[in-house]
Amino acid sequence: MCGIIGVSGTTDAARDVFVGLMNLQHRGQDGAGILTLAESGSELFNLQKGSGLIENVFSERSFKKGLKGKTALGHTRYATIGRQDPNLLQPFFDARSTIGIGHNGNIVNVYTLRDELAEAGLEYTPASESDSEVILKLLALELDGHEPNAQYMFKAIEASMHRLVGSYAVVGIDGTGGLFGFRDPDGIRPLIFGSRINSEGLPVYALASESIALTYLGYTVENEIAPGEAIYIGADRQVSRKVLFQRSLSPCMFESVYFSRVESELEEHSIYETRFQLGLVLAERIKELGIVADVVVPVPETSRSAAIAIAEALDLPFRESLIKNRYVNRTFILDGHAARQEAIRRKLSPIPSEIRGKRCLVIDDSIVRGTTAAQIIELMRQSGAKEVIMASTCPQIQFPCYYGIDFPSQDELVAYNCTDEEVAKKLGADRVVFQTIEGLRRALKKDTLCTGCLTGTYPTDVTCGSDFQSQRLKDRTTLIRKS
Questions:
Q1: In 3D, which of 335, 447, 367, 400 has the Cα closest to residue 82?
Q2: DSSP states along 85-107
Q3: Bridge-partner residues for 206, per DSSP?
Q4: What pairs with residue 318 in β-bridges?
Q5: Is residue 255 part of a domain?
Q6: Among residues 2, 360, 394, 464, which one is catalytic?
Q7: Distance (Å, rounded) from C-alpha 117 to C-alpha 135?
């Protein structure tokens, strides 16, 4: 799960991209990059990328020197393969075809495609393990030497879509100054289109993973790129759009439950309102189960709106008894169990006076590996909680994700093949309550979702994904050994 943004039509596009990336930092903290079309010199593109947080990768000098121009592309990385390899940082570009891309998602058949490219005698030697590089190579091959424009880009994108299996939202720029983007045929990963008018009365366009990256910059959100749709914005500001290959509307439920910022909107629904609804629906289930509590405690930050809704629905006091250290990054997207455990200890501090002697209903957005939940429950008990009831606004996650969320193995999932009682015992809670899948659909107001990690039924074929998942597990094992 990464963050991407592209901008076209402003004299300082890279600055817009930088600010947009700052609003997408929650989507990836491993590294970042910005690619611009060079205004002069022998190089077609200017590229700067580095490991770490966005503000540590770029400086004022970045924009005064290399990162200039009217078209720019940015990416912030969340690793699902290759871990901290700097060669995997995006964007990537291909000088011969004059295109560069940033990609959010995972290509399940990436190893099959690499073999096909090699067997076809195309002299394809990947520079990295990135599946994004394979997308770039496919697009370059399909362009077949043609200068990029709407017609040829759409043809290349459509041909590539029929070969790619998995999830992808892609934003790219080309050597003519064009900006383009497309989304996988099932719409698993989001891509938002926005526009604004500059001081000269001319339109400026942008594509991004979330609406907050656009609205913060003063763009008006036009709409989402549809599943299987491509968009091309020429240097002349002409906008072309076309649905090339559409199969379903199966957006990842985790975007709404956890990953997206609460200020964002997806499919014209506020993420805040969605999470509030998740709380209301979960409150109904808590009532049905006859659970009694004295206080509702959110796990900061993403569960706060749901916890408020639950407190209101159950007529219980809402108390922020767990305080987050704002200088610790998201623990879910850190590498390795030990790293997550240490970060959780640094991340959350309890307020014992608000916990002691109380039956605490602790609300979290999801329970994946159980690392965070178990440590929170231990903190609550150390602070004198009478009971700790853990409630999740997401149903039991029991299957691996193939599409960009980093849980590649069932064995690491705390709810895998377990009853709620067994999960509670593992975590050390008095009780555990999960949202139902039907409740999830009600709250998200969607009949069709990607719920592969909940049900084991995926919107694409995943039988070719064993090599990909094996590599992800190998990466993690290597990292744990090093640490």
A1: 335
A2: -GGG-S-EEETTTTEEEEEES-B
A3: 7, 194
A4: 296
A5: no
A6: 2
A7: 12
Q: Does residue 482 fall inside a structural domain?
A: no
- Counting as low any pLDDT under 50, the low residues of the chain are 333-334, 476-483
- Write the CATH number for 394: 3.40.50.2020
Q: For 198-234, give the secondary structure using H, E and C.
A: CCCCCEEEEEECCHHHHHCCCCEEEEECCCCEEEEEC
Taking only the tens place, the pLDDT of each residue in 327-369 is 665 555 445 555 555 666 677 899 999 999 999 999 999 999 9
Q: Are residues 357 and 434 in the same domain?
A: yes
Asked if 377 contacts 362 with a C-beta cutoff of 8 angstroms, the reply is: yes
Query: Are 46 and 186 members of one domain?
Result: yes
Q: Is residue 440 a part of any domain in this protein? A: yes
Burial of 334: CB neighbours in 10 Å, binned 0-12, 13-18, 19+: buried
Q: So what's the pLDDT on residue 301?
A: 85
Instruction: Give CA separation, 323 vs 73, 138, 346, 351, in Å.
Output: 36, 47, 11, 8
pLDDT recorded at residue 66:
84
**Cα(223)–Cα(228) distance, rounded to whole angstroms?**
14
106 and 61 part of one domain = yes
Domain that holds residue 420: 269-458
> Among this protein's residues, is 2 annotated catalytic?
yes
Residue 480 has a pLDDT of 37
CATH of the domain at 174: 3.60.20.10
Q: Report the number of distinct structural domains present in the chain.
A: 2
Does residue 481 fall inside a structural domain?
no
Report pTM. 0.91
Q: Report the C-alpha gap between 347 and 324 in whole angstroms.
A: 5
Q: Which residue has the tokens 């990162």?
A: 67
